[in-house]
Amino acid sequence: MWLRFSYNNMHLLQKMDAKVEQLLLIICIIIPILSAQDSDLGNLQTLLNAWQNTPPTWDDDSDPCTVGSWKGITCTNGRVTKITLSSMQLSGELPEDIDQFTELEILDLSYNKDLGGLLPSKIGNLKNLKNLILVGCSFNGPIPETIRNLESLVYLSLNSNSFTGRIPPSVGNLKNLVWLDLSTNNLNESLPVSSQTMPGLDNLTHAKHFHLGDNQLSGDIPLRLFNSNMKLIHLLLENNNLTGTIPSTLGLVTSLTVVRLDKNLLRGSVPSNINNLTNTTEMFLSNNRLTGPIPDLTGMSVLNYIDLSDNSFDPYDVPSWLSTLHALTTIKMHNTNLGGEIPVALFRLPQLQHVVLSNNQINGTLDISSNPSTQLELVDLQTNDITDFTQRRHYLNSIDLILQGNLICTESGVNNESFCSNTTNTDLLNLSYSTPFNNCAPTSCVDGRVSSPNCQCAFPYTGFFTFKAPSFSSTVNSTIYISLHDSLMGFFKNASLPIDSISLNNLSRNSEDYLMVRLDVFPLGTQGCFNRTGILEIGFALSNQTFKPKKDFNTYVFDAESYNKFCSGILLGTEDTKNKSSNTGIIIGSVVGGCVFVVLLVLAGMYAFRRKDGVERATQQSQPFALWDPASGSGAVPQIKGIRSFTYEELQKYTNNFSETNNIGKGGYGMVYKGSLPNGQLIAIKRAKEGSSQGGLEFKTEIELLSRVHHKNVVGLIGFCFDQGEQMLVYEYIVNGTLKDSLSRAFICAGRSGIRLDWTRRLKIALGAARGLQYLHDHADPPIIHRDVKTNNILLDERLVAKVSDFGLSKPLSDADRTYVTTQVKGTMGYMDPEYYMTQQLTEKSDVYSFGVVMLELITARNPIEKGRYIVREVILIMDKNKELYDLQDVLDPTIGLSSQLKGMERFVDVALMCVEDTGQQRPTMSEVVKELESIMDLVGLSHGTESSSTSVSYEGTSKDHSYPYSNDSLFSYSGGSLSPKLHPK
Fold first, then answer.
1. HEC profile for 298-331?
2. In sequence order, what are the residues at sequence separation of 6 or more whose Cβ sits closer than 8 angstroms to the Cβ of residue 77?
3. Which of 282, 623, 705, 707 measures 20 to 30 Å from 600, CA to CA?
4. What pTM, to 2 d.p., does this model score?
5. Residue 680 forms part of a structural domain
6. DSSP code of residue 167
7. 687 and 709 co-located in one domain
8. Is 788 a catalytic residue?
9. What is the number of structural domains in the chain?
10. Which residue in the list 99, 202, 741, 788 is annotated as catalytic?
């Protein structure tokens, strides 16, 4: 019995030991998990403290791994593995402690334009990171060398920031990398390749995408950059300062489908083995200094798009092999020393759309044949030696044929033909497609809402696709864009995203020949808005390239605009709420219920006294224009989009009660004050005079236009105040003031701003301002005519980037008035288009005229009208094109530099005088002006991939506070009535 008892007890003890062991094991497992969860919560609190505008659900100590608790945070096994916060309007910097998220696999902070600073070196400690996506932020400084430690990285996208310095050679350590996009930054130095101590880009044999365009990369393209083991499909090196020859090793990478080497300084012959790239569909070699024979592309049977323009190839007849490339849609060989006759078979290529062979020595008879490609739209052969055209009597008007500048157009009776007078290149025009409405009438919407294709008013999520290598040039074939629409919509539906419909519109090609397409995504549901979860999912799908376009469009970049019209979570039950356990909810509900009852009793007596003030405050926040009076002469209620409404008290606080020390300017509109937001951002506040009807009109115009435009060369509108009888506009503060200040002859050595502008800096400023105006004309929706372009309305930031400002007189072009708008004459004398003054018909060419005057002011530093003399007339009278610098030394600003340093000055003057031609028809478009300025910068040897210069700290003097363009109004401002002083005619 004793033995039995002992055995039973021993067995029981063994069972108890086993339970204890299991318990200890569970404790050992749980404690590290709980500790890690607490650690990630602390790390998220660090982000919360470092950033402004984080999602409202980040405001408590709840478990970040509870689904829906912290928006944009995803956990696996209790650890944070994804931080996806695109388009959340975050501001601040990425803290060094980001490396504490040791299990992080995806970090996507794209489309937060106020999020930036240096990329912390400790980011290299995120060993599990697979996707690092920071598209369209404001990160600057060098890319840290520690990025080499991200051994798991597959997707690296740092494009559209302000990174400087070299591409770290250590990127070559990232052997799993498939996607490398560093485009549209300020990166310089040479392309890194492997050495004995460090791998380079050639080591990335699994990479399919090298997107390195729109930087300042220099030096030769290394021979060792390419090898036959590479799987590259996209090589984008356009718009840099690369020199030397195209390496023959490029022909080893037969997987390539897109090659962009255009807009560099490449020289020498194109390697003969380039036609080994038999999978290539798009090839851009234009705008270089290539010489030797025109490359033979025989055998490249899938080639759609070829651009060899603006090179110095050996004289050669139009290549016969072009007619064998049956997939071609676009041929561009402008200014390439072509001669001979064009083969008839060329125009029969079945998919051919655009043929641009202008500025060559093509001769003989042009024969487009009786059966050209049904898709053929443009044949641009201007400035050649063509003597006859067999189809002159029967040529198809559906083809935009340009023969101006050929011998045939000098014949009697022929020079009146449309093909001899046509100078319009449709390749530069806005494309015509816009998503149609779905069998319904568009709804008239209010409060900034937009009618969707299903005719529902909503706040869309908006941005621009930039397609860098489309296979087509068509401007009228809507089938292509319908296909893009359908594939996008199909993708969104398959991903179960909360989308009702999408709209594609505002199609155009920019100065880089990229195809720009505006996307509006409309929310599902009756509220007409997205919650944060919906925006995060859509943003990540586009920033992470999850959406793959049809092959016609190839690679893209998506740049989203800010979205701040989030739906209320209380109404949806899905936004900014916590998914707590039911028991916790009951307990909290009971406690809160009791507390609420007591609080209500206390507050009941106060309610009557506070009701009036509370109603007014609520009205101000939800309906900032509730008290707008259309009868006051200020027009209908402003329709705004995506900007902040400030209270009077807030702006009073930010400006130290609008103190005299914060006053930085005064003009006809009112006062301008400098202020500082709680996050440290400096702002400029334009405060209208009390009771000013003119101020009300300017307020409405500027708030409506600037809330819809976003471009690095257009001053940014942060918000507005329409409260307590005040009308104020809140802008980003531009530290170096106006261009007028910097050109002032009152301080001839350095100008009022303390900045001395030499020739190269003035070129960059001119290009930046031109790009800002081009954006307004070509990409704003609707297009905008500024109407008051002048040096007082061009601001210079700390890097001397030019920003177009002051839109109080601007006019949008409606669908009904796409070419001009008849309106009362307003503007500033000296800059005003004489044709606009005479006809009262305002066109985009009116801005071009004003910009031409600005260009002349840039090189002379003289007022447009000075002592009764008009700058345009003065330049024309004294210039002599047969002499150096056109003999304009007497009127040039002495601080611009020595004569030997003014390379390209003559071409600059030529462009300026083209802009100030008497009639708009004779003037170029702003797009053409941008291209000419870029060409001048190429001539000077400057990069035009970025508008920034070195910071003003490097110049003589130091940055100071400056007046704004709303102050020091020109004595020649004009708004109807008689002109004074009188303009001297040209």
1. CCCCCCCEEECCCCCCCCEECCHHHHHCCCCCEE
2. 33
3. 623
4. 0.59
5. yes
6. P
7. yes
8. yes
9. 3
10. 788
